[in-house]
Amino acid sequence: MSLWVVLAVNSITFGGLLFLLSAGFSLIFGLMKIPNLTHGSFFMLGAYFATSLIARGFNFWAAALVGGLLVAAFGGVIERFILRRLAGAELAQVLVTLGLSFMVADVCLMVWTGDPIRIDTPAGLRGATSMLGLGFPTYRLAISLIAVVFAAALWALLDRTRLGAMIRAGVDDPAMARVVGIRVSRLFTIVFCLGAWLAGFAGVIGGPILSVYPGLDQEMLPLALVVVILGGSGSLLGSLVGSFVVGFLYNFGQAMFPELAYVVLFLPMLIVLVVRPQGLFGRPAL
Amino acid sequence: MTAKLDRRTFLAGTALAAAATLPRPARAQAKPVRIGLLTVKTGPLAQGGIQMEQGTIRFLKDRNYTLAGRKVELIVADTGGNPAGTKTKTQELVERDNVDMIFGPLAAFELLAITDYAAAAKMPILSLAAAEDMTQRRPNPYFVRASGTSAQYLHPLADYAAKELKFKRVITLADDFAFGHEQMAGFQRVFEDAGGRVVKKLWPPLVTPDYTPYLAQISGVDAIVQGFAGSNPLKFMKQYKDQGLKLPVLAGAPAGDDALLKSFGDEALGMISSNFYTNDFDTPSNKRLIDGMVRDYGNIPGTYSAGLYVNGMVAEAALEKTGGKTDDREAFIKALRAVKLTDTPRGPFHFDHFGNVVGSFYIRKCERKGDKLVNTTIKAYPNVSQFWTYDEKWFLTQPVYSRDYPPLKS
Q: Which of chain B's residues have a Cβ under 8 Å away from the Cβ of A116?
């Protein structure tokens, strides 16, 4: 019995981390139609930046913010100077972003060496919290909370602010948006930076659990893809639900069918793609 | 690509430059001995691969790039950590660079990809890759392993766990690939023959960001045994501690590697691991290795760098026996396998008739000294063979260690 409770709580906490990871991917893919395969690299870069910042005396949360900002700046450069030239060419975008991810991996190896680096759990969130007579890592519970707060903030940003309205307009009808005076290209840079920031921030937040090492990018990217395909691209609610679904599939799948861990993870994605290609909460393509 | 070529040219260049500044040795032959190093410098296995290169270069520097009176040229090839890349690089080393011997590769599946080709080319291979059958049921006559088979590290650990720690029941967790399977199978056989019991074997995929589904299944045992490699031990131990688990942890060689300790925090304290090499082995040769590694790379040596340093010593001893000649491959491999060394960083060892090491293995406990984590040796098992105390003939009639062999007793 307690095994199931532990697995359920773990699913929720892992889902929280997945949401932070995949929200940015969903944002970029949903709004700009760019399948950004450098997203895993953004995640890893954020974590690596944080290790360097922490070594220079930053506290964990400051490192998370600044690490995220550095990644956002990097994302902005990629969008402005490379991806913009490839607007609409999805195959080229896939290949370029994939190539960039290899380059980032090589540079990280050069700068931070191949040694895995651990990030200390921030003070105050160490240890376990007991719930229902069982102990759960406090830090992981905090991640779920952060995920929910972020989901709400992103929803408010897109649905309740002028910037959000402009972004939505730019996505639905870029030509008309330009006519009414919205600078769509600048908006897209902002969206891309925001997506990159989210990934970088998620990398730092995930650091104390995952540690940072070469290959982290390629480990996390498929999880982001599954979440977004399952939940539906461009839908924040979809990302949120998708993250928790994948969290559950991952935990229960690995515990109950260890030989089929990846089947359990990817089969639902295949079924969704076949039955409902736009994902559980996605809009059908226009 | 250019970066790799530059690096290769650079290394060959430094080797030549270093050799050129030396007085010409009396026995010097016209052609230098060429050593090809198959290593991994990109991707997830890069940590070990880079350390392999460091250990090799450290050894050659110690000998001024001269072995048995002949100059040595090192050619470093990055396999990318995949079998296809390893095959290509091996062919380049053999056919284009005309190397006299190969150090490496790192991983078992890389080694398995090249063993037939290398045997056909009569190319001596000195590797750390631990695949059991390379020195058992599918031996390659040109292969020498001075470190140990996967299970060879775990046999003594199981003996220690059952006899000294008096553990009765354990759960094993290891990466779901051959190295993990063989390690845990080796542990299981010796542990159960000593009266213990492995109650559950868990196999997280090699790529597992979150171990909690496995950690949730740990209960009702005296200890856990983990056989993770690469960066996984770090992630695993952190999550293990965060989950509030407190059972003693036994670990294989890569999991408790000395060079990995600087990445660990308190979660590694008390972890007991087994390895063919240990930092606190108090001999002049080990001191020199450690000082050299720290001076050159700011890193203490671990399994990979020490392993390659020892490989270098084996090659040196064989070259001395053949008078520096490598042209007669049969004679050279015979000399390699006859190598018997006493003063090495891993202690005394020799080879069995399969070319696998018979030497010391150390049980170490992770402790804090000042602000650093160190492994303290708590027991040394001398003269450990790949067959442990079992009869070789009997051992070889048994199936090879695998995911499901030996089976769990239910």
A: 47, 230-231, 234-235, 260, 263
